[in-house]
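Dear colleague,

Thank you for sharing your sequence with our group. We've completed the structure prediction you requested, and as agreed, I am returning the results in plain text so they can be pasted directly into your records. Please verify that the sequence below matches your submission; if there's any discrepancy, let me know and we will rerun it promptly.
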Amino acid sequence: MTCDLLFVYGTLMRGFDHPMAQLLSRAADFIGEARCGGRLYLVKHYPGLVPSDDADDIVFGELFRLREAAACLREFDMYEACGEGFKEPTEYVRQMLTVTLDTGEARKAWTYVYNWPVDRLPHIASGKFLEG
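Please find the predicted structure tokens below.
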């Protein structure tokens, strides 16, 4: 599926001094603050999003438009160690989710969904990684 939007909710957000966050800031245009249905967990020094249909489960993040979507997504897939060539089950899988901008506009965007068990991980109840 062709899509040039990427929703990020952790260390790829603006303000993080991570090389991949810096790549995103150079290779994409910030669209705005956004949220999606899901539960956020603290995996290690980074979070994992698990989709949820419960209206009370919200994960907050940022939406970007990738200038060279195919090339950027390949880079982020390598960083998240998912997709072709990685042993399954991978820790993350790239999925298309509906995200809602602060303006109320809903958009379909790629995001990286946590794919391993979360039963022993701390839940970030606020849905905001920086408040975890």
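Summary note from our side: The chain is about 15% helix and 40% strand.

Kind regards,
the structure core
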